[in-house]
């Protein structure tokens, strides 16, 4: 590859390079930043993300392959890049205040966050299974450490260790699957695989099937599909809350992006064969997630199970398998990102201001003590429950519509029944927020802790705005998503 | 015209500012923001109106889809606005009269604790109403339709501590739902039939697709008319409007007289092509309008609450507008809508000024002799009354007479006769009102009388402005004179098609100018007769009305109790429904549905408890489930 081409390809991954460089810079500057003044590093991280956004933005993405067919620069990747950058910005803003409390006021936190975003971007743009795996590992390792950041918390230690052990275990499955596929096709490039499996009776090749099954185990673990979800509640509960939010949305989005790349670009001929399995996974995931969430008293655990259930709904889009289904998946991921980050953001703020807030009952009276925070939380929860005019409703609508048009009516009926069950645990929080605490004085004591920090307030407003904007005027997002999936089909 | 969206956007911004930060603003700012928003919209609309006028070219219709609002399957609805002569006229009326009423409200509501909330609602109402008249499709119109309904509900129940006010608000909302139900069905049917909800598309397609009298079109127009009946308070759904007087008086003026209640008339006029193709529905519109006009007028004869008399008068006048539309004279209907907006707003505001002066007294029996004390209110109120009674040269004369004439010329002598009788009644009850309020001996307590004073400037200036409009508003459409029908010419492009279709359906009739002149004299005579009766009964011999009431006791009580329609609805509809609902609640809902739901919930919770026990927390257990899952996958691929 000549140097000019190389430079040209580098411009295609400009956001990744910017994030990476910012991460390194933060690591270096961390040495000079005194303890307790790490807020500047947060600002630097945010600046890096914003700069990456500038590098990311372009009116019309050029569809091309970079670095000799290792990465794509296409509209599908473009969509996910934007989603990851937005998520990262929100998480940084929400993190800024909470780190003191968790005694993890360390520069590495932001550096690792940025590194994990580069991993996600690599995953969503991978044109080769090797790149995909690299992205997955860059992402995972950063997250393992982030989960364990509060070193003095036993829960965090436990979560970190569990996630690392099981994550390594599932990576093993993933790699093993790759070897089988390589054996069957002779290449790890998605395009080459598509060409190899496109003809003959290769779709019935046992090595290919075995390899795909193993890959799917790896994917399922990362997006916490039932029965690969067992780690989720423990890890989500133990991790610092901003990281929980981050894992629940961005990591899932990245893995869904990779899954879509593999199953639509590389193995389209296999797709009908796997539909039934996805069907079962979707039903199991939704049902177990929702039913288990019913009895949770810890709000982070509840949201963990809720995120499992949402992965189930997204899987309905995968089952539909059509262009419309994929579009619905993208819309769902975007909507889910904003509403879930928003809901976690409120949890973060309550925790930060009160030192408590893990328990659903800690939210009693929040709606009166802080009307803005209460109302915002109510909107996010309504959205998660899928009630119009919020993003959650629109997302479910598009996904379910696609499934119905692909004649999976039964699946949609089960999904809607599931959504109805879910309303119970979301609304329980709303009811608790708007019921009075026993003694009114304790409310003032509990919530009279000053104003919401402006960084978190900004993030909250953005999340709220996006949740309502997607809910009321979904057209532009839909158009963008529809344009993005054309890269896959 | 590109920025037509600004017209509803201004008041909406005002609503946001007052609604979100109202309680932190000073009162004067709240009021100023609301008024400025209306003034800006009005100025913009006026500029749109005047520009072609100056250049001496006809107004070009402007239509623009700003963005796609809903797209699902073949249904595609845009947020699109349409400016044509009809909608521009409506915008001018809504913003112009609305602006004056906003200004008036500053004075009227000055010491109300809900000052900013009031202006927020009022601006929201204006925004919704403007959306209603500017929409270029049925669904967007429906958004405005429901928006004004919501604001009407909020403003009727504005003093929510009062039980009667909240009840009236609910009544208005529920009765309107019946009409809205019809409107919604009509929208569904239109989409099903035409595949589009766009006015222009539907109106263009209708004559090609259907012959006159096609059942589909009749169904659509009847359902639309059901919506109009609810919103414009026609028989039999008029019952909410008199109760709506529980709201602040400027609200009655703006919403329940000048603008919102005319939405039904506007909608019928907007669908003139459909109605022209459905003669049965058109006939029904005329019949219902005429019946309502007379019916409401008879109730108005004996009411003792100053605002209720005006409310029944509004119902009656709306009937005239529908009569105009129903006999195919859409221009006349819209013309009356416009003049009525002027003089009825004036009358309501004038009555508000009286009520304000008497510290909340609304009973005619405790008024009287206020002429000298409230001279400005009296003279402006008189202008409004003369306009409503149809005395030359006030606005009402021209518009009402055109409706009567069109009814006669269109070959409906019965409707004409009834409407003429209604005009007599109108003159009677209005002058009864004036005489009881302003003339005769004061019947208010001495203490109240001592404190009576003319209203502040912010209230009297709008009164004067409206009085001028009530005088000159009719001059835009002068009969018998060549080139006198300027409004008709202005609106011609909108109704051209409907009139063409109607003309094709019936024999051409030539009625001479002498006939028109004769009928004009007749209606003037009827009005003067009504005034003379009122004078005789209430000024010359004030004890006479009581004697008449005693003599015709049954008749009087029937009218006083508004034909017992409310009681009839209560016992024939509300009570049985309530009992049915209660039976369903106790029998079906609690036992069957709740039982099933609670059973499911308990099942889910039990299941949930089981699942929780699976979550042991041991890593090796978790690893085993991953392995089990992987085995599941292998079994799946082996079984294929």
Please provide a written account of the structure.
- The complex is a heterodimer of chains A (489) and B (640).
- Chain A has a two-stranded antiparallel ribbon with strand order 1-2.
- By secondary structure, chain A is mainly alpha-helical.
- In chain A, α3 runs antiparallel to α4, α13 runs antiparallel to α14 (323-354) and α14 (323-354) runs antiparallel to α20.
- Chain A is built from 21 helices and 2 strands.
- Chain A has a domain at 269-489.
- The mean pLDDT of chain A is 87.
- In chain A, a hairpin with a 4-residue loop joins β1 and β2 (71-73).
- Chain A is 77% helix and 1% strand.
- Chain B is mostly helical and 640 residues long.
- Chain B has 26 helices and 2 strands.
- A two-stranded antiparallel sheet of chain B has the order 1-2.
- In chain B, β1 and β2 (75-83) form a beta hairpin.
- In chain B, α5 (138-156) runs antiparallel to α10 (249-258), α15 (330-357) crosses α21 (486-505) and α17 (395-409) packs across α22 (513-540).
- The model of chain B has no long low-confidence stretch (mean pLDDT 88).
- Classes of the chains: A mainly alpha (489), B mainly alpha (640).
- Chain A binds chain B through residues 161-162, 165-166, 169-170, 173, 209-210, 213-214, 216-217, 220-221, 227-228, 230-231, 233-234, 273, 276-277, 288, 291-295, 401, 421, 424, 473, 475, and chain B through 67-69, 71-72, 601, 604-605, 607-609, 611-612, 614-615, 617, 619, 621-623, 625-626, 628-630, 632-634, 636-637, 640.
List keywords for this structure.
heterodimer, A: 77% helix, B: 640 residues, mainly alpha
Sum this structure up briefly.
The complex is a heterodimer of chains A (489) and B (640). Chain A is mainly α.
